[in-house]
Amino acid sequence: MKNTLYLLLIACFSLVSCQGNAQKKTKEEQFKVQKTDAEWKKELTAEEYYILRKAGTERPYSSELNKIKEPGTFVCAACEHPLYKTKYKFDSGTGWPSFDRPIEDGIFYSTDNKLGYTRDEVLCANCGGHLGHVFNDGPQPTGKRYCMNGDAMHFIAAKQ
Prior knowledge:
19% helix, 160 residues, 9 strands, 6-stranded antiparallel β-sheet
């Protein structure tokens, strides 16, 4: 009995020790597009850099993307990765482009505690650029509101 318990403890310890930090990737290492801060500064406008690389927020109602209703795709301003389709865009009344769902594999979720409480941060799944946040107060059928910074995205109209 003693030997069985001893072997069980060794097995449990072995399993737990295999979950070390050396095997975990940082948030930045999970993205295909990797650039230095200097490269991002050179490629992006000041507004895009502030939002995408420093997790900034644009003023509400300042984005031209709020007005877009034509069919197309909203892509990351840093790497052109597809994020959202116009058909899932809605007017949330918040002043930022809002969607009820992303394109599959378009985004990556992270946790943001900058305001003293936890929010679900939305990043580009390709380059890790900060896009905005997702909230649980959107329209059905998803109930989600992906509240995005317009300066973090570009719009590509669908070909007619």
